[in-house]
Amino acid sequence: GGNMDCQAYLEWLNAGNQPEPYVPPPPQIPTQVTAYQAKMALLNANLYSQSNSAVYNSNNQSIIIAWEYASVFERDSPFIQSIQPTLNLSNNQIDDLFISASKIT
User: Fold this and answer.
1) How far from the centroid of its chain's Cα atoms is residue 38's Cα?
2) Is residue 32 helix, strand or coil?
3) How many Cβ atoms from other residues are within 10 Å of residue 76's Cβ?
4) How far is CA 59 from the centre of its chain?
5) CA distance 83 to 51
6) What is the per-residue pLDDT for 25?
7) Alpha-carbon span 40 to 99, nearest angstrom
């Protein structure tokens, strides 16, 4: 008896074939996270005080208001785009911050 698929797979292996290693799909980058999640992710990455300084040193009222009052931070928002160069973070690093932020509860 037994499973035909399993039997065929074992024969395929015995013929010298190798399965491809499992490659997990790339993580989905969240389009937005809560302000709490974003700031905790920055804190966890040791970037919070640097981000805070960047915001206030910008002397840009809209950036300061976004930092203080936004309830969510969007990945492609003007706020992120304006603060990213100051923090000297790559797009991948910003993506990683959003991914880690999305896991914070």
Assistant:
1) 10
2) strand
3) 9
4) 28
5) 8
6) 87
7) 12
In angstroms, rounded to a whole number, what is the distance separating the alpha carbons of residues 32 and 88? 21
CA 45 to CA 54: how far, in whole Å?
Answer: 16
Helix (H) or strand (E) run with residue 72 in it: strand 72-74
Whole-number Å distance between alpha carbons of 68 and 71:
9
- At residue 2, the pLDDT reads 64
Number of H helices, E strands in the chain: 6, 2
Among candidate residues 102, 76, 104, the one with its CA nearest the CA of residue 91: 76
Q: Which residues of 33-67 are buried (b: 16+ CB within 10 A; e: fewer)?
A: bebebbbbbbeebebeebbeebbeeeeeeebeebb
Q: How many residues does the chain have?
A: 105
pLDDT given at position 105: 93
Count CB neighbours of 10 within 10 A.
12
pLDDT mean by block of 10 residues, the chain; 105 residues: 83 93 90 97 97 94 95 94 92 97 96
